[in-house]
Design goal:
By secondary structure, the chain is an alpha/beta fold. Helix content is about 40%, strand content about 15%. The protein is built from 14 helices and 10 strands.
Length: about 350
């Protein structure tokens, strides 16, 4: 299916998101203390960044530290685009899944030393299908296509590989990769709802998975909480250089995230309003609030249960360096204090 037809369907169902590709973000030179450029992707999992942006929390904590901070925001789709932007110097903070984090941590180990700054919370991700014949991952065939943000790199791709390894053994971990295609969440959701295309699967995230499931033709094939237990699928990461050369800006960012997490966890209604206001999402507030109020959701900067995926990726050869624990791929900051 062409990009144009995907975008038309996205507009038709009112998902209303603009897509910026990695090519739009121009490389930039290293800058002095007092500037931070942040890349986010799509979905409720980035709500903490929406709160930070809406309440100007980085600027607030910067002023408390005696500096004025200029914050630039951009939106990308897929871990590959985000990782490329970070390594090119186009952004300072990358928002992506644990899969892209572990890939870039491994590749920059001993060089740029990219590590995670914080989690964005704990959320179940659903693998969906509109094909009634697909009940489990074993039912996908060459006639199916599964949308993921970035083939082989995104956390959704890694979750699918993890599930395949459990189903068929580690040697077959990438068995379903040939069925995956890179499509942004809004477009994939529109295609799944509309039907009539080869795209019959989508490894999604909230609220897109919930919007798709409102269609009776769409069902859940796999829940990542069933696969791994409660976990933090999405994180923020940066280079060691940025952290060391911009300590006040970096600290203001971490403090802003912590404040945003406290706000979102304690006031789900205000969090829902923030998401709609900042993203422009065409979603009913009551529907969104019901999604956010899911007891399985936890807005927290402390990572949870990320290490099983790291151990798996090393075991199958997706990363060369084996982390001893989650602390190997997270910066050792005062926040978060604990994790897994």
């Amino acid at each position: 299916m062409s990009r144009i037809s995907f975008n038309r369907m996205a507009a038709a169902v009112g998902l209303g998101f603009s897509l910026l590709t990695g090519a739009v973000v121009a490389p930039a030179q290293a800058h002095a203390e007092g500037e931070i450029r942040i890349a986010e992707q799509f979905g409720i999992v980035y709500l903490l960044l929406n709160v930070v942006r809406d309440q100007h929390l980085i600027e607030k904590h910067g002023k408390e530290a005696g500096i004025d901070i200029k914050v630039d925001w951009t939106q990308l789709s897929g871990g590959s685009a985000v990782n490329d932007a970070l390594l090119s110097g186009a952004i300072d903070i990358a928002g992506a899944g644990v899969g892209p984090l572990l890939t870039i941590w491994d590749r920059t180990h001993g060089r740029q030393n990219v590590k995670a700054v914080a989690s964005l919370g704990n959320f179940p991700y659903y693998l969906l299908s509109n094909n009634p014949k697909v009940k489990t991952i074993a039912d996908f065939t060459e006639k199916d296509r599964i949308a993921v943000p970035a083939v082989g790199v995104s956390v959704q791709s890694r979750f699918l590989q993890y599930a395949a390894a459990k189903q068929w053994g580690d040697k077959e971990y990438n068995r379903l990769d040939k069925y995956t295609i890179a499509v942004p969440h809004p477009d994939a959701t529109a295609a799944l709802i509309a039907g009539g295309t080869e795209l019959s699967g989508h490894f999604s995230n909230p609220p897109f998975q919930d919007q798709a499931l409102a269609n009776p033709n769409v069902h859940v094939v796999l829940n990542t909480y069933d696969l791994l237990g409660p976990n933090s699928p999405t994180v923020l990461f940066a280079t060691e250089k940025f952290r060391e050369e911009n300590p006040k800006t970096y600290h203001a960012f971490v403090e802003a995230l912590a404040e945003a997490a406290d706000f979102a966890q304690k006031d789900k209604g205000a969090a829902a309003d923030t998401y709609i206001r900042v993203t422009g999402a065409k979603i009913d507030r009551a529907v969104l609030l019901k999604i956010i109020d899911n007891p399985q959701f936890e807005f927290s900067i402390t990572p949870k249960n990320t290490y099983p995926l790291a151990e798996f990726m090393h075991r199958v050869g997706a990363i060369k360096n084996k982390p001893a624990s989650w602390q190997d791929y997270f910066f050792k900051d005062a926040k978060p204090l604990q994790g897994s």
